[in-house]
Amino acid sequence: MTMKKIENKNNFCRLLRSTNRHGIGDVIAELEWLDFFEAPASRKDHNAYPGGLVAHSLNVYRVAKELSLVMRNINPDLEVSDDSLIIASLLHDICKAPRYQGSINTGGAYQKNYSHLPVGHGEKSVIMLLRLGLELTDDEIMAIRWHMGAWQIALHNEEMQQDYIHATHNCPLLSIIEAADKLAAQILEVTK
Q1: CA 125, 93, 179: angle at the middle one, nearest 5?
Q2: Around 78, how many Cα atoms within 13 Å sit in the side-chain half-sphere?
Q3: Most buried among 44, 78, 96, 101, by the most CB within 10 A?
Q4: DSSP secondary structure string, 10-57?
Q5: Rounded (5°) CA angle 51-57-60
Q6: How many Å apart are CA 40 and CA 99, to the nearest integer?
Q7: Is-contact 80 176, C-beta < 8 A?
Q8: What would the pLDDT profile of 67-81 be if each residue is shown by its tens digit?
Q9: pTM for this predicted structure
């Protein structure tokens, strides 16, 4: 493991442990087992290299932290806890660890593995965390579940659209994580 990967892993684990959340040790152990710290963040688009997933998660946290500070300056009544920012930012994509492992195909992208609980991107991360016994707040569940925003909504599924709209109106953490994920992936991690 390179020095940068070790530094990223240490920062990631330190931040998670700082929440003192019940079950966080089990989550970190599972991430080790899943090889999360060696996984790419995407097949070929952003941080598609070994260790890219943890680097992406840290980028999302840094952007989310800055966005929350800016939004608190504009709206001092904004209630988003630092622990929730850490949990949702760092763990929003844990489902990717078993998904993008393996060799790179002839098109220069990682192979995708659909065999590990194919229920949907955000849902899978929430389910994995809950199965590990991590105590998540409702806001953290909504932020992780909907962090991809409207990209995960079936075109003609009105119930899903209304769930997303209701979640965004009632959970500032969701909007911050959704924006931070997009900004990290499309500005900080774009390769030209």
Answers
A1: 115
A2: 21
A3: 96
A4: HHHHHHHHHTT-TTHHHHHHHHHHHTGGG--SSSSSBS-STTHHHHHH
A5: 140
A6: 9
A7: yes
A8: 999 999 999 999 999
A9: 0.87
